[in-house]
Amino acid sequence: MKAAHLSTHPDYNPAAPVLQLKNVTMRFGGVTAIDGLNLTVPPKKIVGLIGPNGAGKTTVFNVITGFYTPTEGEVIFEEAPVVGVSPQKICALGIARTFQNIRLFAQGTVLDNVMVGCHVRRKCQWWMAPLCLPGFFREEKAIREKSMDLLNRLGLAHLARENAASLPYGAQRRLEIARALATDPTFLLLDEPAAGMNPQESGELMRFIEEIRDEFDLTILMIEHDMKVVMGVCSHIWVLEYGRLIAEGGPEGIRSNPKVITAYLGQEAVGK
Amino acid sequence: MTWELFVQNLFNALTVGSLYALIAIGYTMVYGILRFINFAHGDVFMVGAYFIFFGVTAAHLPWPVAALVAIGGASGLGILVDRIAYRPLREAPRISALISAIGISFLLENLGLVVFTGLPRPAVQPQWMVDPITLGSIRILPLSFIVPVVTAILVLALLWIVYKTRPGLAMRSISKDIETTRLMGVSVDRIIALTFGLGSALAAAAGIMWAMRYPQIHPFMGVIPGFKAFIAAVVGGIGSIQGAVLGGLLLGTVEIMVVAFYPTLSGYRDAFAFVLLIVILLFKPTGLMGEKLEDKI
Amino acid sequence: MSAQAVKNTPMVQNHSLRNGLSTIVAIGLLFGGLWLAEQHFDGYQTQLLNLVAINAILAVSLNFIYGFSGMFSLGHAGFMAIGAYVSALCILTPGQKEMLWLLEPIWGPLAELSTPFFFSVLMGGLAAAFCSFFIALPVMRLGGDYLGIATLGFAEIIRVLFTNIAPLTNGAIGLRGIPAYANAWWNYTWLIITLFIILSILKSNFGNVLKSIRDDEIAARTMGINTTAYRTMAFCVGGFFAGVGGALMGSLVTTIEPKMFNFQLTFNILLIVVAGGLGSVTGSMVGAAVITLMLEWLRIVEAPMNFGFVIIPGIPGMRMVIFSMLLVLIIIFRRQGLMGTREFSWNAFYNSIGFKDRESFERSES
Asked: ipTM score of the complex?
């Protein structure tokens, strides 16, 4: 049940950017959370969005996924404008996301959580359930198998029937990613995937992110505070401060950029 | 619709509206600090009416003393209900507290049935209050002046407490951020108890005055006025005392005046409040004076 | 899937044939039991038996809306009223209608209306589902307590409407002499239909989807689920069965009036759902049986007790005092009710009586 998305279209340009933010501004009453942001995400790359707390990074995610409608500007996904599109349709178009504060379906099992992710690609309707149509049962079986397969590839298969809320923290993060992958995305947004991890775990996470990018043929945009992870996997990084883009570029450039250092560590750190 | 009839109905509306406002304040204050609908509030109103009835007839207390006893008793009841049925659920999902409140509401009503029996009690109406006075060709009950005036005094007193005293400051603070208020050293449970106490006192006052206007006291008398007062609070803007007053007056006016102009609709009177509720929830869910409460994604 | 993947998958052995046959046998036993009851139960016991089935339908439908889909709807009595009245209008004979409509004559097209019982109950359910849809449109975006109040408001509006629109409902007088077609056979058949439809939805991935909307609506939307559409669906399906329950109840008690579809009726169903377990269909059924029997048994407390030499007067209202206390105690001390979210399953049943799965058998060996 792979999504039929733009890449199957005859005019598809594989080099076209996956996501473009053009002059996006997000204002809440008197507060400007994002100010004139321009961003272009190239296909199949892992890219990063960093900045001090409160810089507006999660707000950017909420704009991309359709929970906020930007006050100004355009959001273009695979050459189609998506401002004003509902979050569920944006998922159907191929954008999946994880959350900064893990949002699993706490009363379900691990398997249940992933199966929910498969729902967006279903063909059958709810009323076909009581009619006991064979096509319906086939689809249900396919969903279960696909979900188990995903759990396997993410190393969670042995926990399939555990309650999602009872999992250790790292496993919960992986489960959220498994669930997002179940929606067959082409573009994956990860919100602080390394939060709360020790250096060994974050090292594994880096390999893990590169693996899933290759295995699932994804473009990945992540918000992260752990600089080792960001510098380690991202090919391009955007830096936000107070809603404004203050720098962008490859890891080396960002690491030594004085504006970035000032934003994170304050004026005095620049001299070091 | 003659001029006289209009003025009489207007005073009626003012009276009923004031009573709705008094009850609505209790709902709105509790919702403001706890984000929860105290279903049992309307029954505190009922208890207040019963207390003064028994205070006067059984305990033979002079009316003002009985009134104070009734208000104090109802206040105590409100605090007790919070203590035993709502406080254990502070950390639980909100719906649990709501279900508990529904349970307490039924409990109070049926306890009333058991203890007081379903026989409607005639409230004591001091004669001078219900002898209509005549202004020109208009006949108005003195009660129709007294209720709005007493309501205004009580509301002003409450607003003074909320805006000019430290417990009031604590109440406002809790409604903004309960955790931080707790961290500031405020005994949140005591302030919550105070909120319930004040709201219940006002409801009891409303019960006393209601019983004088509609002198049948029975265990289920709080049900419909309670719903309507809650609707008034929502219409005015839940969490806002001024909103509750506005909502109460508005609802009272709509109820009385619509039936005054279209007497054939009198059978539908009880539905007006619910229709008003649906309309407000559809078009301005925060109410006429309310604030938006955002969800963080 | 690779061989490795298959080996790692904790697949449960497929027992669908065994389970399917077990269900058929169970239904057979149920009807056998009903036949025996018909022979041996007196009127009172039969009434209880019927009430249990109807309350079970009502509880399962409310649980579907609230326990599984997370919508705190307090409007159940309103949908029951719609079901009861629509069904009554379909099964009352034209002769009865002419006699009953005292305030104003019945509205023309309804006078001659008459359908077989199955269709009248079906119409009751559909009418309730139809109204649920229109009520859902405005209230769906409300959360938690506001949804409760709004649905309660609609139930009250329905009650007031039914009290006033005499040509349709005979107003406050109500309808009496409704043909008593709702015997145990019909009631339990409808219960089985209800369980079949609701369980088939809940056990499929759609059930997962509903529960995910309940647990975290924002995450559900992010995963591509049209939460508004599904909540509306749950509300309407639940409303349908509330209408069915109302229709059956109308035919069981043979007298209906708008006053009886009040908030207390909804409260009783809510009590059953909470006591049985929010999110457990089994819990709702067990709860329906227990609470219905208790409700009737506690009537003793309300009726005077005649001991010959002394008569202890009954205490009206004591039943509800006990039940309200029960609800408060359950919600404070055991919010998950009797069953929590656990369900009866044939697999668990057979495992417990000794027919263990091969997998668990191996595990217990080592």
From this structure: 0.89
Asked if B277 has any chain C CB less than 8 Å from its own CB, the reply is: yes
Other C-beta atoms within 10 Å of A35: how many? 18
Selected residue of C62, C69, C142, C145 to mutate for chain B interface (largest B Cβ count, 10 A) = C145
Q: Which residues of A touch C204 (CB under 8 A)?
A: 126, 129, 136, 140
DSSP 8-state code for residue B218: -
Chains contacting chain B through 3 or more C-beta pairs under 8 A: A, C
Q: What is the pLDDT of residue B117?
A: 83
How much is the average pLDDT of C229-247? Answer: 96
> Shortest CB distance from A120 goes to which of C4, C208, C224?
C224
Chain B residues touching residue C325 (CB < 8 angstroms) = 103, 107
User: If one looks up domain A1-94+184-272 in CATH, what number appears?
Assistant: 3.40.50.300
Per-residue confidence band for C4, with pLDDT thresholds at 50, 70 and 90: very low
Best residue of C135, C157, C318, C330 to probe chain B, by most B CBs closer than 10 Å: C157
- Give pLDDT tens digits for A171-195: 899 999 999 999 999 999 999 999 8
- Single-letter residue type at B3: W
Range of the domain at C174: 19-260
The whole-number pLDDT of residue A79 equals: 86
Burial track B193-202 (b if 16+ CB lie within 10 A, e otherwise): bbbbbbbbbb
Q: How many CB atoms lie within 10 A of CB A115?
A: 25
Domain spans in chain A, listed from the N-terminal domain onward: 1-94+184-272, 105-182
Q: What ranges do the domains of chain B cover?
A: 3-283
Question: A92 vs C224: CB contact, 8 Å cut-off?
Answer: yes
Q: What are the chain C neighbours of B94 within 8 Å (beta carbons)?
A: 144-145
Query: In angstroms, what CA-CA distances link A118 with A4, A148, B90?
Result: 14, 11, 36
Q: Which residues of chain A have pLDDT under 50?
A: 1-4, 271-272
Least confident of A9-23, B38-52, C263-277: A9-23
More confidently predicted of C351 and C249? C249
C151 domain-assigned: yes
Residue B84 gets which letter from DSSP? I
> Is C138 an interface residue toward B (CB < 8 Å)?
yes
Sign of CA dihedral B183, B185, B187, B191: negative
Nearest Cα to Cα of residue C184 among C82, C84, C36: C36
Q: Is residue C348 part of a domain?
A: no
C70 occurs within a structural domain: yes
Instruction: Kindly state the tokens that stand for A226.
Output: 């752990």
The CATH number assigned to the domain with range B3-283 reads 1.10.3470
Reduced to 3 states (helix: H, G, I; strand: E, B; else coil), residue B139 is strand
Find, among A102, A108, A114, A197, the residue nearest to A153 by Cα: A114
Q: Report the residue from A87, A108, A158 with minimal CB separation from C208.
A: A108
Q: Which of A34, A2, A21 is nearest to A218 (CA)?
A: A2
What is chain A's Cα-based Rg?
19
B292 → chain A, closest CA residue: A29
CA pair distance C283, C341, nearest whole angstrom: 8
Cβ neighbours for C357, distance < 8 A, ≥ 6 positions apart: C12, C13, C347, C351
Q: Name the minimum distance, in Å, from the CA of C318 to any CA of chain B.
A: 6
Let me know if residue C130 belongs to a domain: yes
Cα–Cα distance measured from residue A74 to residue A244, given in angstroms and rounded to the nearest whole number: 16
What one-character-per-residue DSSP string does B263-290 give?
GGGGGGHHHHHHHHHHHHHHH-TT-SS-
Does residue B76 or residue C2 have the better pLDDT?
B76
Q: Please state the rounded mean pLDDT for residues C88-108.
A: 83
Query: Chain B residue with minimal CA distance to A99?
Result: B297
C147's CB contacts (< 8 A; 6+ apart) are C71, C72, C73, C139
Confidence band for C366, pLDDT divided at 50, 70 and 90: very low
**pLDDT higher than threshold 90 for residue C328:** yes
